[in-house]
User: Which sequence fits this backbone?
């Protein structure tokens, strides 16, 4: 009888522990913030680069170019040499990258020896619940590194995600990040390029995206037009 009671008690404890853990993750009550903070601190020491095989390609094949584009999947999936056929471009976008991931692969950007560096990143940081302050600090490190190597830095506003897909909290965070990036551009004396409707305060227009985050042809066409209106890169 005692043994049966102990077994029952054991399974009840396991069930309650699992239920509480699930609830903490879903509803973010105590100790969610404490656990997330510990996780962030642990990740600070990691040096593993995202999608190492793609970065190795950068390092093995790195012809000198005029312009380098730095970012995540939204940059990677753009056919930039087709968008600007008269310019020598290098696409240094890596799907899934955060600002921290870019910091870990700066060498593969330096080797392009480009004169101008277009930077557009941040949505993955926001999905990872990184604070806006931390994202901006990482931006500062990237910008400082590029300036030290004599790149002209163009920080572009972070492209929004569709409200119906990402929710109001993420859309609001992108808006806050873009305000901070505009201020950072002034403080760091670099060019800040506002991407207009792609960074709309109401979220990404569904006409510009096929999944709520990544751009379709119309979205890239709009992005190209914003770059061209500022720099007249299309002949």
Assistant:
């Amino acid at each position: 009888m005692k043994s049966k009671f102990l077994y029952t008690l054991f399974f009840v404890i396991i069930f309650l522990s699992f239920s509480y853990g699930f609830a903490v993750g879903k509803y973010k009550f105590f100790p969610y913030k404490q656990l997330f903070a510990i996780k962030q601190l642990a990740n600070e020491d990691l040096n593993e680069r995202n999608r190492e095989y793609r970065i190795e390609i950068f390092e093995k094949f790195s012809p000198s170019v005029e312009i380098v584009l730095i970012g995540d999947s939204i940059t990677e999936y753009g056919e930039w040499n087709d968008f600007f056929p008269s310019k020598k471009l290098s696409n240094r976008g890596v799907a899934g990258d955060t600002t921290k991931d870019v910091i870990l692969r700066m060498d593969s950007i330096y080797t392009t020896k480009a004169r101008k560096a277009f930077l557009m990143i941040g949505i993955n940081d926001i999905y990872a619940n990184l604070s806006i302050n931390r994202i901006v600090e990482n931006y500062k490190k990237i910008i400082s590194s590029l300036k030290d190597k004599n790149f002209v830095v163009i920080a572009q506003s972070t492209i929004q995600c569709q409200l119906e897909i990402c929710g109001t909290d993420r859309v609001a965070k992108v808006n806050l990040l873009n305000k901070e990036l505009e201020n950072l551009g002034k403080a760091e004396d670099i060019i800040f390029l506002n991407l207009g409707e792609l960074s709309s305060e109401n979220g990404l227009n569904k006409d510009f995206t096929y999944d709520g985050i990544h751009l379709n042809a119309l979205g890239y066409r709009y992005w190209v037009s914003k770059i061209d209106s500022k720099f007249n890169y299309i002949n």
